[in-house]
């Protein structure tokens, strides 16, 4: 900068790469926001250009020139400057004629997308209605969203009769509990594991999180890790429905539900069946009710309810039994509803209908709702995986997964008893070898190149859950019975990344305002800027920057370094260059999630720094005390918060002001608004604090502690604070969002 010379050609003469770049057919450089508003961007070598402008003409006839100065953003990672501006012409601009003007030390150069020159060049001409330009449609509602992330098992238990009777280890790992309805599953399925623990109990909602059930105590005797991750607390859809007024009072207008599909796990990130809602969230025993949901009899992707299929058994059946696939006999490969992968056989279970009723109630109250899509892997109890374990290499579902060895497999045959077939199924999980996510055998990976698997997921995504039982998009979204979009789990893990290009077309083709956000933890520009995968991301990078400025305390470089105001400003500005403007507006600026520690707790763990981790933090020395009681006797904490005039809650409030006024869509993890605290999984997933409950005192769970014992209760002041901030944001949308 200051030399009057512009870097254009690469040093390596064997490459065609240029330092100065603008491509009108790339969303990264030319972004149509509306018929009258456009985002322009040009890239240059870092610190090479002092100022940049754009010269635009809308009509060749009058040749009226408009010149706008562009704002500089630095990409220090790759060594480039970006000059950018959003321009609203105040009227429809069907054709744009423009070039860029670059200035350095009194020297002026011009760039029209193809040529760098020192005299005015021929203007680049762009027909804005042409198919040559990329259009990136992100629904406006997502830009105005106040998100609330609900982990269903831990939010509110509205129906104790659907409480889980076992966990992710399956009934085979437990003895029947006479206090439960153990007949919800077949008697022969209990106590089949080599390591039967004891009888199963859900954990008590109001207990100290350290408190263990009998099965936990016995199960941990011969292992060196905690089984807290496998607990069940009984939260359900009825509980969520009952708390919609609470969300309305807070100001929430969009909800992301962690996975809700049939699964034995509390988190449901390993599904047994994507077609159906988990009975422990809906109902285990069927009632014969349809919950006010109407099914379109012309819906070829599910025109029957469970009542139509079960008849007089619709009031006395167990969904846990009905959802299991038959391993042998004339109904081999079908579940109790007679379903296969063919959508013509699909049925709306009672739990499905309870979910649809919840979706309708959300919509009626002006709240959008999205599901969590986990299409990279399933559980090892998924019905198609079970059929591969039953049929071996001859299974038609074998290529839905990534099996590598059937050498020890034993075929399940029709002459086996049901009990023998079940025992063989369990044994075959150890006799076969397959690829699994993260190396966890319980989460086998799908082969996302398989066309049958893709079509199956596409139909479930669109026809089942986007359209709902009426099989269509309603003109008024507040009357619609389908979801509004998806949050995608580990989308970067899919071997076939083109899966998402196809899936996006399906989802966007179903509803004009459908929304897609992705769990991508770093710079996701490669997945967003093509405009053909995801709308936006869970903005973990925003959270890292927030931690660096508001929480970090160190003067030394690295992840613990406390950003100065200028550092904070520059880093946020650089990260805004990563994505198109629409993606920024809709990005989920989150306090944390089920995968991170609570932000309230991170404030008193400043020594950790800005890195976000999914590991077992408490076991690594995390300060898990209630944050207002934290002191610097703990090595993770540099401030004596007990005696400080400024409290952790004050820092949280300060962050919340920034969160509610920054570009993007603020997102709260359930309980953030009432001061919940905790390290990463499972401590960030404690049961929600409610005023109506009296909770046990908590004993400081940190390995380094002073035997502190303190109350667990709702922070009403913090709730009112978030409520006020959300109201201010919603009343000033044009100031905060655009």
What radius of gyration results from the CA coordinates? 28 Å
Shape: globular
Averaged pLDDT, please?
Answer: 95
User: Termini, distance in Å?
Assistant: 32 Å
Strand content: 15-25%
Report strand order across the widest sheet.
Answer: 22-21-20-17-12-11-24-23
What share of the residues lie within helices?
10-25%
- Number-wise, the strands total 26
Q: Structural class from helices and strands?
A: alpha/beta
Number of helices: 19
Largest sheet: 8 strands, parallel
Uncertain stretches: none
Question: Would you write up a description of this structure?
Answer:
The protein is globular. The mean pLDDT is 95. With 738 residues, the chain is an alpha/beta fold. Helix 10 packs parallel to helix 11 (498-510), helix 13 runs antiparallel to helix 14 and helix 17 packs parallel to helix 18 (716-731). Strands 22-21-20-17-12-11-24-23 form an eight-stranded parallel beta sheet. Strands 3, 4, 7, 8, 9 and 10 form a six-stranded antiparallel beta sheet that branches.
